[in-house]
Write a structure and sequence with these properties.
single chain, 481 residues, mainly alpha, Amino acid/polyamine transporter I, 19 helices, 67% helix, globular
Length: 481
Amino acid sequence: MLKKSLALLKQEAEETGTYSLKRSLNGFSLITMGIGVIIGAGLFSLTGIAAANNAGPAVTLSFLVAAIGCAFSALCYAEFASLVPVAGSAYTYSYATLGEFFAWIIGWDLVLEYSVGAATVAISWSQYLVRFLSTYHIYLPPQLVLSPFEKAQLSDGTTVHGYFNLPAVLIIILITLVIIRGIKGSALFTSIIVALKISVVLVFIGLGWQYINPDNYVPYIPENSGTFGEFGWSGIFRGAGVVFFVFIGFDIIAAMAQETKNPKRNMPIGILGSLIICTVLFGLFGYVLTGLANYTEFKDSAAPVAVAIAKTPYVWLGQAIILAIIIGYVSVILVDLLGQSRVFFAMSKDGLLPRLFSHVHAKFKTPYKGNIILCVFISLFAGLVPIRVVGEMTSIGTLLAFVMVCLGVIILRKQQPNAPRAFKTPWVPFVPIMGIVTCLLMMVSLPLDTWIRLIVWLVIGLAIYFSFGKKNSKLNSKSSP
């Protein structure tokens, strides 16, 4: 239960040498990184699902409710990021407020979320790439786009088994090389991708707006079916739970604190700025989507955007959306891998993981050894395991981290009320308490297998902590006689 003092964390943030990271990110870079991971393929699928099954045209209100729920946690993250500008995000914040044991649990759980997330997105990216290329009569061998546990039926009726999902592996390797080259290059790469993604979203909104049928908004809030969550106001809140996971990603910005110029100013700008921009874009996107087609038409549709685009003369926009998904997935993988390596970097510096994870490249000033090891692990996972086994990018670990950060703000306000804070969360303890309640409700709504996966992973993590981490903890050794 040993805790890191704020003085020690600030000392770590200012250190230089073999285990220090290069500060090259500004507020704009952080905003683009946040947008890069928040705007993913989920926007193009979950919006239609929430409209068809829960909220109807009022899915725009669902986005607003979800954004407010995220804002509670974002405000708490912004305070910590300005107060403790050190790599590690929620792991570091928990270390300062709740102690090493809880910090390990959060750090280890974030490792799972980022790894599974990156592998899942890589597999899905591969599938979208195959679909995109097939429209131009470019066909990749099915054996090289499927895992060994998957099979495909060819046009002549024969069935073939996959060998290796080569595109998924190649995209992981490519993005790892970009990350190793330096955080500045990664930020520039993300900025270009974000510009393309935002352009496609804005084009959809701009071109689709003139074909909106006002009758599709009547009734704006469909009458409840008699079941909680199926339309009416309860449907709006259930829809908020569905689209909430589209917003998750801003927390990864906090993991970049030690590579940010003037983090006390720029971290709150990055966290809150990306959340505000995405909220506006998502609301407009949902409004146009449900205006082009009646929300009932999105029922059982895997591609609701295609249904909406069919109401316009712009058929080419469908291909542009698929291209946007492919591009969007690239930035999601990049930020996932960045966040993953920075959490490992922080845990390694504290002695809880082997030191090689915090060894920084002499020229690029990035934790390249950790990047390479993670690349191998995640590449094998993406290449050999089918997407149904890897599962959805569930966010239970991220939500648990949100709870810890919100709780940490309350604790630190009590323990060290006079600590200099460049950004202060307003209305404490109301805001962090609402953040805790919101996240716990989201966690309870997640399926049982997600909880089982979390528990199994935590058991493995505790075994590593008590066999290696606790013995090699730098803080623990300093406190020993």
